[in-house]
Amino acid sequence: MTQFGEGVRVLQMTRQITVGLLFVVAVHLRDVLPSGVTEVLLLSALFAFVARKVKINRYLVKLIFILLLFAFFYVLSFFVAVRHEATTLNTVFILLYGMVVFAIFFQYLESRENNTSLIIFVRVTSLLSVIYVLAWGMKIIGYSHFDGLLYIRGSNVRVMGFLNNPNYYSLSMLFSFFVSLYLFRLKQVTWICVFLISLGVIFSLSRGAILAISLFILVTFLEKRFITNLTICIAIFILACFSFLLYETGFAADVFTLLFGRFADSGGGAAARLSSLMLGWHSYSSDLQHFLFGVGPGNLLSLMENNPHNSFARILFESGVLGFLAYVTFITVLLLSAIRQTLSGSAFALGMVLSLIAFSLTNDYYLVKDFWLILALAAYCCQSGRLESGCRFGRR
How far apart are CA 342 and CA 356, in angstroms? Predict the structure, then answer.
């Protein structure tokens, strides 16, 4: 029996390691393999764990019902849409896939024993983050050996890792950041992992991701016992890194251009996006069919020339006011649950939900798998008692 038990433990650990590595591949290396391969592998592995212990969670059922309502109006907009291009139906399937990921990952989190795979994921991500930041640092001092990990556009240099888009990279690192904080609260990873991953997010120079982390830190000050040491260490270290670079390189102006130049980019700044958004709203609101049912999934650019980088605007324009209201209802349910958690002494869930809202206002990646993974983690943490066992920052 002893040997049999040992064999079972080894098998379980092997499965957890496999899922953890699949998380790394699906989140950080998905562009390395053919499209869809990593998603199918990860979804299959998660489903294999969830299928063994299926428990009805009323909170999840309520959220799924609202999501199905949103999906109904989204699909309805597909049939009502004037334009039916090849990408339109594909957009519908991507959204439905994201919802499946949301439900399965939520169920996966219900079992604390599955945290082993997440711990592996966080530790590997920490190592990748170090590599990315070093690649960025070498670039600004003149070395170009690791340009393949960077997105270089004029004077702007951003980390994009092994992905083809720095904004996708920022979303994947944002998911990693929240997972690391979740495990840190449960005393399952150290603050070093959180710190390293936060660096990886910041060096993406994504306005939305940086805003999300900043908002999260501000909101969690509502807790009676806040992650003071962690946040102060992150702030001081990042400031020290920037100061060191400015001092050692001797070209402060160039460094500031690399860091902050894109924030003043008139082509992609807030003013240009707002102008595009207002143009889209005028075209959308002038047609009753568009107002009710939208222009159809994937047809956003039929209303405007440029993407407004706003998830709420994209959902409104593509699925109409009915789909928009269903999605806002879903977010509102999460927000109210998070507020109740905050009143109980834990602002972690509220920080995540508000961070997601902030990110959604500056990006439109609600069709990306990583966004639904963050939503699942936020929804799981919105339930009472999910962060109390082993939590080092509970109520006094």
Answer: 17
Which residues are paired to 150 by β-bridges? 159
Neighbouring-strand partners of residue 157: 152
Q: Give the whole-angstrom CA distance, residue 370 versus residue 24.
A: 12
Element (H, E) at 365: none
Rounded CA-CA distance 348/226 in Å is: 10
Distances from the Cα of 396 to the Cα of 13, 350, 351, angstroms: 35, 19, 20
Question: What DSSP element (H or E) covers 146?
Answer: none
In the predicted model, what is the mean pLDDT of residues 44-69?
78
Question: CA-CA distance, 359 to 378, in Å (whole number)?
Answer: 14
Q: Using pLDDT thresholds of 50, 70 and 90, give the confidence band for residue 376.
A: very high
> Does the pLDDT of residue 301 top 70, yes or no?
no
Q: Is the whole-model pTM more than 0.85?
A: no
Residues 319-364: tens digit of each pLDDT: 888 889 999 999 999 999 988 888 877 788 888 899 889 888 888 8
